[in-house]
Design goal:
Chain A: One of its GO terms (molecular function) is mannosyl-oligosaccharide 1,2-alpha-mannosidase activity. The complex is a heterodimer of chains A (556) and B (584). By secondary structure, chain A is an alpha+beta fold. Chain A contains 18 helices and 23 strands. Classes of the chains: A alpha+beta (556), B alpha/beta (584).
């Protein structure tokens, strides 16, 4: 088994990891000092402001990063602060999408990690708990938005009064299709199916409204189901819809979601892919409308690695990396033929997407190039955007002028993925070699075995938890069998638990040479061929040598 | 929710005051730097920090951190050789390369001027005039010639080597032995002959000199070496009679003389001609780290032997490399008459008479007079394991030797007929007991007549090979684990056990060179599968070796593997075996 002693272990020197840790605390402490309880820190003026609501957003978003950095005591302190201080019964117009991914997602992951963080959990955990109740409360505030003729949600909702009269019915695609991970988790944990149902209904509505050539635009009228903006691509306005089809499929072992994604993937390859770049096209005709690369699109290689398409992922990643090298960050829009930024879209708000892809791909390939991107990101962010009170958004990548903002995703995602890139032994990378057994009212349950699914705000969800809170005879027996097997083997030797539903994230994109994963794959295939849609293809022979920038053309 | 509301309300009440107070207070504190307008703190922005020194002030590198390109250009007058290091202060690669440049500068500062220019700061001249897509960019100037961009690895030794090449692009060859040294190198050599007697500089010399510099622009690995001969007698060794003629040396093919009558004698043309006609016995692979199809393109040419050795370009002698060169030469050595023909027309009749002798001359240093007259066709056979417990393989080299003259048409068949080998194998089997009785480390050879043809006889050289000697790693592992006779055929293409032909290549390298050197000689010509030879510096590219099965924690970073992309197999040479000629 390719354990932590992978070929790159010597390469991701721990000094870089420690630099990332220092970056986190520089920003985090200044947020607490100068900005809390506002949503975000304003690093140039050293104060705070509310941006997406009024829920101390940066604190919620950074919570699980604290644990990933190993700071248990601060995690515990913040959980207590949040329990007392955050309230969702407020007259605030909030983005349904942002509230879901940052607040609901952040609270859910904190809830699921709270036992690991040494918090005293109540008897019903993980099926109950204060953070879970908070997440549920926040999510319920969003439900009124889903009351539309199509089932697709409005973009904005008032947390106290529901959808405002006169609210625009136009929502972006991602704002409709980015709920399944959080909402399905909520439904599984609380036992109330309403969340998963509305999320699925919205996904199906999008699927039904795709164009004849299989593409979706980036804004739609949720009342009439007419596409308002017909640019199709993988970036802004659409991005996390595709992401959640894949992650939802892995989390729920749902073949339907995966086959939807694979259909989209085909159309995307056919119409938008040129030379490993992905352009924007007209969703009905497939003609190129914008030859730009967007900073947000950089999540795509990471997503490809999750479905095992590592070769294509690396090729696209290397394209994106050249843009980073040109500017020291990724501009919101980059005109590919001109090789330069696009007017009014020159900013880089310290987004995580490229680093996120590097983290996934490094798990899959151990290619040192990916650590190099990490190194470049650390240098750039420190040299360009570090100010006395935190890290400032880069307003213009051409001259590195700074803006008075530090988005909450900087601590939630950018720092987290950087740290995970440089910390190969982090518990998040667990491959199932250790786990916790929890007794719930529904029986024994295996948790923290790895295969975490990150929501689009980088909040990790333990997929195993979804199977803890429902009484299902068959599943229960399966688990009990596994437990028996485990304890009987434990006496003789170390035993690695591998179970299909626990696989996800890093594991799914695992090194093809990994003998045990290959074996597991075979076993699965022979047992149940129906799982094939959800397991990764074997990697090509030449992928062995596809490191340090080398790419191979198809063998055909 | 009611109890929770109260602290919240208190909080809200606190906010306006906090906002205003903070803004005004901080506004004053940061007024100079931030241009804060208290009323609209939202629009606060801050220009990028002013550039500061990138190199320390004590460094031998002149650091123009405000991007003063005009001053950088002025500085060029001061030194014959100038190296420009264009960097961006935020760039990780620039920061990593900084140390390397400092190291090189500390060694060469008396001969080369090192100038670093911040080409990012948008107020600086450099940023305004140059448009780079990556950093750092290294440009070299030899007087007015330049820029020569350095695209090699960002490692001090490689940079220094390149700078030294720019300093002395032409090697002065003073004697016959120096000439032989120059030509025997595995990298292609171009020699110009110029008589320095009458005028201060013979005509064409400057052009030749420039073409050497020019080649560094095109061929950043610096594979083609340029030398100059001034002694008439030395020049005659390579049949250069007239001053101003240029010679491209090749080992396996005929060497060439620059066709002045066809192409104009310009620096670009000479360089282009050398690049087009050079012979690549062994190629260095140095992936630059960016997206590239280098391996894809090279490995798709056919099976490749990748040799990983630690390499210091600054060292004068590379014994290991010489050893590998020998092997490569032997591998590529073909029937000379066959090979000499195709390129002759390229050169023209007038200059050619002395060619063959010159080639032989160059080879004399290495060649140990190989008996290749009969061009036997050989195959390696791995015998079935007699004792399943023993950890040994019997490897036999089976050759079909046809008697000359009796069947003249057969002598010209370049490679083995499948049937012949099969027949040979059959008869070999009947004799096999002779070999199994002697299991030793020596090589046993015996000749025996074919049962089917009175005109040929077979030679079988067998030796016992320790099993760990051959560690095969491939997707087809099972083939090698079954103790079955594996025999290869060159003639038959539809061999179903596709991975087997390569076992032959491999095994040919295993027996002691003393005895089997004849087998490797000209192997590239006899077999219809050519094996391309590549070198990789294990200091930089060990990861590829690891990917092919090398251990990651070895102190001696030497490794060899044959990769066949098409067949999706690769074979590795055991790492415990030292990487020397005989093993190869």
């Amino acid at each position: 088994v390719r354990g932590p002693a992978g070929p790159g272990l010597s390469a991701p020197c721990l000094c870089r990891r420690e630099r990332v840790r220092a970056m986190f605390y520089h920003a985090y402490e200044h947020y607490l000092e100068s900005a809390f309880p506002y949503d975000e820190l304003r690093p140039l003026t050293c104060d705070g402001q509310d941006t997406w609501g009024s829920f101390s957003l940066t604190l919620i978003d950074a919570l699980d990063t604290l644990l990933i950095l190993g700071n248990v005591s601060e995690f515990q302190r913040v959980v207590n602060v949040l329990q007392d201080g955050v309230d969702f019964d407020i007259d605030v117009n909030a983005s349904v999408f942002e509230t879901n991914i940052r607040v609901v997602g952040g609270l859910l992951s904190a809830h699921l990690l709270s036992r690991k963080a040494g918090l005293e959990v109540e008897a019903g955990w993980p099926c109950s708990g204060p953070l879970l109740r908070m997440a549920e409360e926040a999510a319920r505030k969003l439900l009124p938005a889903f009351q539309t003729p199509t089932g697709m949600p409005y973009g904005t909702v008032n947390l106290l009064h529901g959808v405002n009269p006169g609210e625009t019915p136009v929502t972006c695609t991602a704002g409709i299709g980015t709920f399944i991970v959080e909402f399905a988790t909520l439904s599984h944990l609380t036992g109330d199916p309403v969340f998963e149902d509305v999320a699925r209904k919205a996904l199906k509505a999008l699927w039904k409204n795709r164009s004849d050539i299989g593409l979706v635009g980036n804004h739609i009228d949720v009342v009439t189901a007419k596409w308002v903006a017909q640019d199709a691509g993988i970036g802004a306005g659409v991005d996390s819809y595709f992401e959640y089809l894949v992650k939802g499929a892995i989390l729920l072992q749902d073949k339907e979601l995966m086959s939807m994604f694979l259909e989209y993937n085909k159309a995307i390859k056919n119409y938008t892919k040129f030379d490993d770049w992905y352009l924007w096209v007209q969703m009905y005709k497939g003609t190129v409308s914008m030859p730009v690369f967007q900073s947000l699109e950089a999540y795509w290689p990471g997503l490809q690695s999750l479905i095992g398409d590592v070769d294509n992922a690396m090729r696209t990643f290397l394209n994106y990396y050249t843009v980073w090298k040109q500017f020291g960050g990724l501009p919101e829009f980059y005109n590919i033929p001109q090789g330069y930024t696009v007017d009014k879209r020159e900013g880089y708000p310290l987004r995580p997407e490229l680093i996120e892809s590097a983290m996934y791909l490094y798990r899959a390939t151990r290619d040192p190039t990916l650590l190099e991107l990490g190194r470049d990101a650390v240098e750039s962010i420190e040299k360009i955007s570090k100010v006395d009170c935190g890290f400032a958004t880069i307003k213009d990548l051409r001259d590195h002028r700074l803006d008075n903002r530090m988005e909450s995703f900087f601590l939630a995602e950018t720092i987290k993925y950087l740290y995970l890139l440089f910390d190969p032994d982090n518990f998040i990378h667990n491959d199932g070699s250790d786990f916790d057994v929890v007794v719930t009212p529904f029986g024994e349950c295996v948790l923290s075995a790895g295969g975490y699914i990150f929501n689009t705000e980088a909040h990790p969800i333990d997929p195993a938890a979804l199977h803890c809170c429902r009484k299902r005879k068959q599943e229960q027996w399966e688990v009990e069998d596994l437990m028996r097997e485990f304890y009987s083997r434990k006496k003789s030797k170390k035993f690695t638990l591998k179970r299909a539903p626990d696989r996800g994230e890093g594991e799914n994109a695992k090194d093809p040479e990994d003998a045990s994963s290959e074996k597991a794959g075979e076993k699965r295939n022979s047992k149940k061929s129906s799982h094939s849609l959800l397991s990764c293809p074997s990697q090509s022979f030449n992928s062995k040598l596809a490191v340090l920038g080398q790419v191979f053309l198809d063998n055909t | 929710a009611a109890p929770r509301l109260r602290p919240r309300a208190a909080l809200m009440a606190r906010r306006p005051e906090l906002l205003c107070g903070a803004a005004i207070l901080l506004g004053c504190a940061f007024l100079v730097a931030l241009k804060v307008t208290c009323s609209r703190a939202k629009d606060v922005t801050m220009p990028a920090k002013l550039p500061v020194n990138f190199f320390s002030t004590r460094s031998p590198v002149i650091d123009l951190f405000r991007g003063q390109l005009d001053y950088a250009d002025q500085l060029r007058q001061d030194s014959e050789i100038v190296l420009y290091f264009f960097y961006a202060p935020w760039c990780g690669q620039s920061i990593a390369a900084r140390e390397e440049i400092e190291h090189v500068a500390s060694r060469l500062s008396d001969q080369v001027l090192f100038v670093a220019v911040n080409c990012w700061w948008n107020q600086g001249k450099c940023r305004k005039q140059k448009h780079f897509f990556y950093f750092p960019v290294i440009h070299l100037y030899h007087r007015s010639f330049g820029p020569i961009e350095y695209k090699g690895p960002m490692s001090a030794v490689y940079i220094e080597k390149f700078v030294r090449r720019v300093m002395t692009p032409l090697l002065y060859i003073s004697s016959r032995s120096k000439l032989l040294d120059f030509l025997s190198n595995y990298e292609p050599g171009v020699v110009g002959f110029f008589e320095f007697n009458a005028s201060p500089q013979p005509p064409g010399y400057l052009t030749f000199f420039t073409s050497a510099l020019h080649s560094l622009k095109k061929d950043y690995l610096g594979t083609i070496r340029f030398g100059v001969v001034t002694d008439k007698r030395v020049a005659e060794e390579i049949s250069l009679v007239h001053s101003g003629s240029v010679y491209l040396h090749r080992h396996a093919n005929t060497s060439l003389i620059y066709p002045k009558d066809i192409m104009n004698f310009t620096a670009e043309n000479i360089c282009k001609w050398a690049l087009e006609n050079r012979e690549m016995l062994i190629r260095w692979l140095r992936p630059h780290g960016g997206k590239s199809l280098l391996l894809n393109n090279e490995l798709k040419k056919g099976p490749a032997l990748l040799i990983f050795i630690p390499y210091n370009p600054l060292e004068e002698i590379h014994p290991l490399l010489d050893e590998i060169t020998k092997v490569a030469l032997e591998y590529h050595k073909c029937n000379k008459s066959q090979a000499a023909e195709p390129d002759l027309q390229h050169v023209g009749d007038s200059d050619s008479p002395a060619f063959d002798s010159s080639v032989t001359d160059a080879h004399a240093k290495f060649s140990e007079t190989f008996p290749i007259a009969k061009s036997p066709c050989c195959n390696t056979v791995v015998l079935p394991q007699w004792h399943s417990i023993s950890r040994t393989h019997n490897v036999c080299e089976l050759c079909v030797n046809q008697t000359l003259g009796v069947k003249p048409n057969k002598v010209h068949v370049p490679h083995c007929n499948f049937l012949e080998i099969e027949a040979a194998l059959d008869s070999f089997y009947l004799q096999e007991h002779t070999f199994f009785q002697v299991i030793s480390n020596t090589i046993e050879c015996s000749n025996f007549l074919s049962f089917y043809s009175p005109f040929s006889y077979y030679t079988a050289c067998c030796r016992t090979v320790n099993r760990h000697f051959l560690s095969f790693i491939s997707s087809e592992k099972t083939i090698f684990q079954t103790p079955k006779v594996a025999f290869s055929s060159h003639g038959k293409k539809d061999n179903t056990q596709f991975s087997i032909p390569h076992i032959e290549d491999r095994n040919c390298f295993i027996p002691d060179l003393n005895i089997s050197s004849t087998n490797i000689t000209g192997l590239s010509c006899r077999t219809n599968k050519t094996l391309n030879l590549y070198l990789l510096d294990s200091n930089l590219f060990w990861i590829y070796a690891e990917r092919l099965g090398a251990s990651r924690s070895t102190h001696l970073k030497e490794f060899a593997a044959i990769v066949d992309l098409k067949e999706e197999v690769h074979y590795v040479l055991d790492q415990n075996q030292s990487l020397v000629g005989p093993t190869l």
